[in-house]
Structures are given as structure tokens and as C-alpha cells.
Design a protein that fits this description.
This protein has 549 residues and is an alpha/beta fold. It is 30% helix and 25% strand. The chain is built from 15 helices and 22 strands. Strand 10, helix 4 and strand 11 form a beta-alpha-beta unit. It is globular and about 75 Å long. Keywords: Aminopeptidase, Hydrolase, Metal-binding, Protease, Signal, Zinc.
Length: 549
């Protein structure tokens, strides 16, 4: 009954906005992306001159749109930003790596053979010699699935070699949801689990298909400056070494240790798998780490609700990218981040302009540009742990990350395969914009865990991350797939993710009308969307139900 009333209430609200929504300007979208991804903004790295320029630009645009500051309270007044204290970790000097098989010692190259992250466990120097390597399969400990890849293996003083994704990835069926990645498949889980077990380090074997991105993405994301939220006991979350290894090198090391990589990988897809040490194969490493605490900024702008100001709808996107890093083949070191996530922030600004011109809705609407997404969703994680507006009375979160700057599509998607009312409402709304929902085409890539909405979702807040469609009006699915594959292979997390004058932004201008109407209807209604009964985040939301009466 409640579901029916919710649907009727929202459909009535949808109808009110269907024909009279605001128009969105492709030229403004293009200009915002062009500015934010220009070399002048230096790749928008946190705690850089690029951050200072980005934050100033966002505040300027929010002010011009007529919004109010929505950030930290300073001297009794809201400011435009929320301070986000972060640990900053950077490798200083050379990274010396070598592997020995008992007969020969082979030097390894940072970024080409291994991609080693700056230590985030508090160490200022990572220095060990001849550490043994132990293959732990997918590195999963899931009691609820009666799955344990460790079987009592002691990892202290050892390097755990682990596969990316879930045991189900290769076969598409099993105890981990088939192709759809669970959190056990994410690299963040692998690092966390090995740290909990006291490993000296974690080395993830890179394979393009299960990782869902190529080695260049791994290299550029992990050899850069690293960040984390400030932790009381960082060693409980991070082992001294955290790294990825090229698949071919891993296969060779297994062979030198008398092991068959493919055979062991098949074993790792079963409950019976047991850890195996690579006999006589050891790794040595030496590199210094600079560690300090910095303060980055989330930017928050607000439309204060006319009758229910303490209830909040949030639009979000991350303003940061990778900053300045290793040069590409052309010598370009600036990771401009035009699509990722200049497009999402341009969308956020356009939505803010639309709300600024309209009468205030009943509930408040917050436009949240978060920092350090590229460092592990840290800006949204910090906000969710220290919310400016209570999560219990946050109606929902509509996140936008890496939208298409190209032509109109016939469909849309979201990151992951979550089941929640907010998606049902979006699907209903999409019909008025001639768009159909396409479930995440690559649930095995774990996109649900890779965007800022996840920080809210795991605390129970209904949250989605909107994704542009792949069925182009001009060219169909084939054209859409070509664009997506080209971006993933040639531009994602690379200096070449740059603004192009050829981009039409037709898809974004069209889809923003729908996202505006969805948020506006939520802000003008009294409904509280929830997760499906069997969703893993339902319990967290239900636990705060009394605060929404």
C-alpha cells in the first residue's frame, strides 16, 4: 500500500513538471568543462594550486546562480566549504624493487612492472629484503557465504598476491552474485583484508577484463600522490606495501616458483582453494614516504526549503582529478579530467542555475562538490561521516560522474545494480524524456563502489550515480560502444582526457531536464524513498525511520 501511495504521489508531482521544466545550455556546460579541465587548473589535484582555483570557480558560479552557502558554520554563519582533513602520502626519491628466484635477481621498474602506492600505514620508509610471496586467490573472507581463501595462513612478514574481482567473474555464476561484483571484488577490500591479517604487503594481479580498466589506469592512479581520511590506527587499514603487478610478470613469477598461474586461478574459484607460497620467489623493496595532514575542501551550496528546510535533497559530483603525474608518451603530465569529472561538475552547476531561477521548493536542496574521489571517495566519505545536514533526513542523493559530452541517446544507466525506490522514480520520470533504463552493462566492474553515492548508500541514504546512455540516436549502440571503448582505452585517467570543441553536450542538456525534475519532485513532496526489502542498505535506513516522522 505504501509503495502504491508513493508511486501515485510522485507521478502527480512528475506531471506538474513534465512540460514546464527549465532549459539547459550546452554552451555553458562546454565552457565550465573547458575552464575546469584547462592546464591552468593543473588537473584539479587536492591540496594544490589547482584546488584553490577550482574551489574559487565553483563558489563564484554558485554565487552567480543565486544560491546560499551550505558548508561549515563559521562564526554563526554558513561558509561555502566544508574542511576535509586528509592524510597526504607521497613517495620521495627512487623506488627500488627487485625479485629473486634463488638463482637470479631481477630489478623491477615502478609503473611498468609494479605500480606501488605510497605507504599509508604511517611508515616513512618501506624497506624489506627477500619477503616471501603467498598466493591467496581472491583474498576473500566471507563467513556468510562460507568462503575463506586464507585457511589459517599466517601472512605476517609476507606479501599476499591476490586476484582482482570475485571468484564468480570467470564463470558468471556462483556464491558472489555471478558477473555483478560484490564489495569483496574491489581492490579496496583486498587491501583492507590483507592489512587486517597483518600482511607485509598486498600485490594485486592486474588483468584488464576483471579490473575493467587497462594497466595505464592502474599506473596513473597508483604512482601518484595518495590520500586517505585521517585514521587513529592507520596500520589496521593499510599494509606497508600496496601494489599492483602486471599479469605477465605474475605468471612468470608463478612459473619460477614451480606453479601454474591459470591452474591456481581456477582453484581459487572454489571453496577448497588453499593459499600457496611461491617457492624460493621473494621480493625486495626500498622507498621513502613523505606523510603529512592537509585540509582539502568540499564545496556546498544550498537552496533553503520553503516549508521543510531541515529535509534535504542532495545533488553531488566530485571536483577533483589526478593533478600532475607521470608524463605520457607525448610528455604531457597534466591529468585534466575533462569527462572525469568536469562533466559532472558542469552538470551540478547547471542544475544549481536552474534551481536558482525557480521558486524555492518545500525541502532544501544541496549542491555538493566533493574532493578526493579519485583517492578513494574520501570527500564524500568525510561528508557522510560528518554530515552538514543529517543523513536521517536526507531524502536522497543524485550523483553525477563522468557524463557523456556527446549526442542524444535513447537510454540511461546508473552505477551498479542497486534496488531502490529512487531508481523506480527515475525510470518513471525517464519515460517523459523518451529514455529507457539500461541496467549497468558491466556490473562486474563494481561501479557501484566506485562513485561518491556509495559513501551515502552504505549508511542507508537512498543514493544513485547517474550514467549517460550508450544507444545513440545517431549511430545506435555500435556508435555508443565505440565512444565508450575509445574513452576507456585512450583517455580514462590519462592526460588525454581533455576538453574538445567538437563535443555537442546534447545528451547532457537533455538528461539534465530529467534529473532536475526528479530532484525537484522529491523536494516538493513529502515522500521518503527507501531501499528494496532485500537490499543490504535497507537496515541502516530503517534504523533512522523515527527521525523522519
Amino acid at each position: 500500500m505504501k509503495k502504491t501511495m508513493l508511486a501515485l504521489s510522485l507521478l502527480a508531482a512528475f506531471a506538474a513538471h513534465a512540460a514546464t521544466g527549465p532549459e539547459f545550455d550546452a554552451k555553458r556546460l562546454s565552457q565550465d568543462v573547458k575552464v575546469l579541465s584547462s592546464d591552468e587548473f593543473e588537473g584539479r589535484g587536492p591540496n594544490t594550486a589547482g584546488e584553490t582555483k577550482t574551489v574559487a570557480y565553483l563558489i563564484e558560479q554558485f554565487k552567480a546562480a543565486g544560491l546560499k552557502p551550505g558548508g561549515d558554520v563559521v562564526k554563526g554563519q554558513r561558509s561555502w566549504t566544508q574542511d576535509v582533513p586528509l592524510g597526504r602520502f607521497e613517495i620521495k626519491g627512487p623506488v627500488t624493487l627487485s625479485v629473486s628466484d634463488g638463482k637470479t635477481v631481477q630489478p623491477l621498474k615502478q609503473g611498468d612492472d609494479l605500480s606501488v602506492r605510497a605507504a599509508m600505514n604511517g611508515s616513512r620508509l618501506v624497506d624489506f629484503k627477500n619477503a616471501p610471496l603467498v598466493f591467496v586467490g581472491y583474498g576473500v573472507n566471507a563467513p556468510e557465504r562460507k568462503w575463506d581463501d586464507f585457511k589459517g595462513q599466517d601472512l605476517k612478514g609476507k606479501l599476499a598476491v591476490v586476484l582482482i574481482n570475485d571468484p564468480d567473474f570467470e564463470t558468471g555464476e556462483g556464491d558472489f552474485g555471478g558477473k555483478a561484483m560484490t564489495y569483496y571484488g574491489r581492490w579496496t577490500y583486498k587491501y583492507e583484508e590483507m592489512a587486517r591479517r597483518g600482511a607485509l604487503g598486498t600485490i594485486i594481479v592486474h588483468e584488464t577484463a576483471p579490473a575493467s580498466y587497462g594497466w595505464n589506469t592502474v599506473k596513473n592512479s597508483n604512482t601518484n600522490v595518495m590520500y586517505d581520511i585521517v585514521r587513529k590506527k592507520p596500520a589496521e587499514a593499510h599494509a606497508p606495501m600496496e601494489a599492483w603487478i602486471q599479469r605477465d610478470l605474475a605468471v612468470d613469477l608463478f612459473k619460477r616458483g614451480g606453479l601454474d598461474f591459470e591452474a591456481l586461478k581456477k582453484q581459487a574459484q572454489t571453496r577448497d582453494f588453499k593459499p600457496v607460497e611461491l617457492k624460493n620467489v621473494t621480493l625486495s623493496a626500498n622507498y621513502a614516504v613523505s606523510a603529512q595532514v592537509i585540509v582539502s575542501k568540499n564545496v556546498a551550496a544550498r537552496i533553503v526549503g520553503a516549508s521543510a528546510p531541515k529535509e534535504t535533497v542532495i545533488y553531488s559530483g566530485h571536483w577533483d582529478h589526478l593533478g600532475v603525474g607521470l608524463p605520457d608518451a607525448k610528455g604531457d603530465k597534466i591529468y585534466n579530467g575533462a569527462v572525469d569529472n568536469g562533466t559532472g561538475i558542469a552538470a551540478l552547476l547547471e542544475l544549481a542555475r536552474a534551481y536558482g531561477k525557480a521558486p524555492a521548493p518545500a525541502r532544501s536542496v544541496v549542491f555538493l562538490a566533493v574532493t578526493a574521489e579519485e583517492k578513494g571517495l574520501l570527500g564524500s566519505e568525510y561528508y557522510s561521516a560528518n554530515p552538514l545536514y543529517p543523513l536521517a533526513t536526507t531524502v536522497g542523493v543524485i550523483n553525477m560522474d563522468a557524463l557523456s559530452p556527446h549526442g542524444l541517446t535513447r537510454n540511461f544507466t546508473i552505477s551498479g545494480s542497486a534496488k531502490l525506490d529512487l531508481l523506480d522514480e527515475l525510470i518513471a520520470k525517464a519515460k517523459q524524456w523518451n529514455l529507457v533504463y539500461k541496467p549497468d552493462p558491466k556490473p562486474e566492474a563494481g561501479h557501484f563502489f566506485r562513485s561518491d553515492h556509495f559513501s551515502f548508500a552504505k549508511r542507508g541514504v537512498p543514493a544513485i550515480s547517474y550514467g549517460s546512455g550508450d544507444d545513440l540516436v545517431e549511430g545506435g549502440v555500435a556508435a555508443g560502444k565505440k565512444l565508450e571503448d575509445d574513452y576507456t582505452t585512450n583517455n580514462y585517467h590519462q592526460p588525454s582526457d581533455e576538453w574538445s570543441a567538437s563535443w555537442t553536450f546534447a545528451s547532457m542538456t537533455h538528461d539534465l531536464g530529467m534529473l532536475y525534475a526528479l530532484g525537484r519532485d522529491l523536494a516538493d513532496s513529502k515522500v521518503w524513498p527507501n531501499w528494496a526489502q532485500d537490499a543490504e542498505f535497507r537496515a541502516a535506513r530503517d534504523a533512522t525511520a523515527a527521525q523522519r516522522k
